[in-house]
Amino acid sequence: MSAFARPASAPLAVRLHERIAREGPISVADYMDACLTDARGGYYTSRQPIGASGDFITAPEISQIFGELIGLWAACVWQAMGAPTSVIVAEFGPGRGTLLADAMRAWRSAKAFADSVSLALIERSQVLRETQKETLRGASQPIRWHETLDAVPRGLPLIVIANEFLDALPVRQFVRRKGVWRERCVGLNAGGRLAFTEGSTVDDGTLPEAPEGAIIERRPATGRLLASLAARAKEAPLTALFIDYGHERSGLGDTLQAVRHHRYADPLAAPGETDLTAHVDFAALKREAEALGLKAYGPMPQGEFLIRLGLLERRDRLIAAARPEQRELISSGAARLADPSRMGVLFKVLALASDGLATPPPFGEI
Ligand code: SAH
Q1: Domain containing 27: what range?
Q2: pLDDT(7) > 70
Q3: Is position 144 within any domain?
Q4: In terms of pTM, does the model score above 0.90?
Q5: Are residues 196 and 272 in the same domain?
Q6: pLDDT tens for residues 166-212?
């Protein structure tokens, strides 16, 4: 590091400019990583992003039914594992802790399961860890927080839940130029502002032919995550549920997006101050999981998944018990999660499991 490098306390935008001026353009993945998880100025590290007053809203924040149904799903999965007396329920990126709080309410009708659970929350953000502690303070299960899955104890049955987690993991982007793929990078333009540029050629033999100017994305962190799940699935029963937005078939295209105050923004305009995500390639996820020996089910559209788990019945029961002024909110929340034109189709669900377990609900025949 040069003697003139800014201290870590300088704003992230300033430090990124200096880093690029010093080292040259950085990959889109390194840019995303810095923007999201920089120890001081990273988006998740430094702020409270989720909710009406934040930047975006997620399924568990839209309707309590989401967490309740996933809670019941977890209880069914535990039954299929042979109802072990000790099971870890791990959530990746639990946000405000709302999904688990709603799941726990559903566990009141699954007491043997509730008594078997210990919770592992995998969360890098201190700000969100504090919110999660507050949301889950009434929990009867032991809760531990971890930086990564590697820190979660091994050898015990494991149920993993991840809603809108994978989309926050950095993607590399490649641009097709004159018959070769080049790494898409973030550099500085003539005016000294952050701008997309193209770096060195990459040829690992796995990228397809594509027309001039095409962009393709790869997310290296999912490979590491899947390898870690696959290793655990060989030691003890494991079932994992990934819910996210993305595409069912691998394809070309730039899906990097920035969201601020519930609107799309320029991904380069305010590093660390906007949420940066990219779509999940469910086909690639499934292919990689299966190659590692995991069973994969889905992807199933979120609307179908929730309706098969009982969304409409639960909605109707909540409406019947609600005060008149709450009914519309319950109904519109359920519709937003399941309608094909809202979150029902863009969001998809993929379940992964160790070999030898029954098909997790609701992926079996009905
Ligand atoms: N699941 C929640 C929150 C989604 S936002 C919900 O549905 O509301 C993404 C979550 O993942 C946040 O909690 C964020 O802090 C966390 N996160 C992002 N990148 C992470 C990483 N690399 N490791 C651990 N947690 C991460």
Answers
A1: 1-40+172-218
A2: no
A3: yes
A4: yes
A5: no
A6: 999 999 999 999 999 999 999 999 999 999 999 999 987 889 999 99
Per DSSP, the three-state class of 134 is: helix
Whole-angstrom distance, CA of residue 186 vs CA of residue 183: 10
Tell me: do 32 and 48 sit in the same domain.
no
| Segment 244-262 mean pLDDT | 95
* Residue in the structure block whose two tokens are 């000294």: 192
173 close to 26: Cβ distance less than 8 angstroms: no
pLDDT of residue 301: 98
Q: Is 298 in the pocket of ligand 1 (CB under 6 A)?
A: no
Q: How confident is the model at residue 3 (pLDDT cuts 50, 70, 90)?
A: very low
Cα–Cα dist 48/4, whole Å: 32
Q: Give Cα 29 distance to the centre of its chain.
A: 16
Spatial distance between the Cα atoms of 196 and 17, rounded to a whole number of angstroms: 13
Ligand 1 midpoint to CA 169 (Å):
9
Q: Is 100 in the pocket of ligand 1 (CB under 6 A)?
A: no
